[in-house]
Amino acid sequence: MINRTRIKPPEQTFEEVKYLKHLIDQKIPVRVKLADDSEVEGVIEYYDTAFIRVTRRDAPNLFLFKHNIKYLYEV
């Protein structure tokens, strides 16, 4: 019998960090769908472990907590 130990996958791949950094560096406009089904459009200027900052044109800038975000996509 072969003793195979399973390697546990990493808890963090850091792909989220790479993607957010890419969006910030390229100033790519995004649309963010929130948990209450409202949507916010703008450019991500800053991110943290808990939130992202979205800069909007003709509207106030917002800090959005990540736990309130369903998903985001490039516009």
Question: Overview of this structure, please?
Answer:
- The chain has 75 residues and is of the alpha+beta class.
- 16% of the residues lie in helices and 40% in strands.
- The chain has one helix and five strands; from the N terminus they run H-E-E-E-E-E.
- A five-stranded antiparallel β-sheet has the order 4-3-2-1-5.
- The longest helix is centred in the N-terminal third of the chain and has 12 residues, at 15-26.
- It is elongated and about 65 Å long.
- The mean pLDDT is 93.
Q: How much of the sequence is in beta strands?
A: 35-45%
State the helical fraction: 10-25%
Q: By helix and strand content, what is the structural category?
A: alpha+beta
Count of helical regions = 1
Which quaternary structure do these chains form?
A: single chain
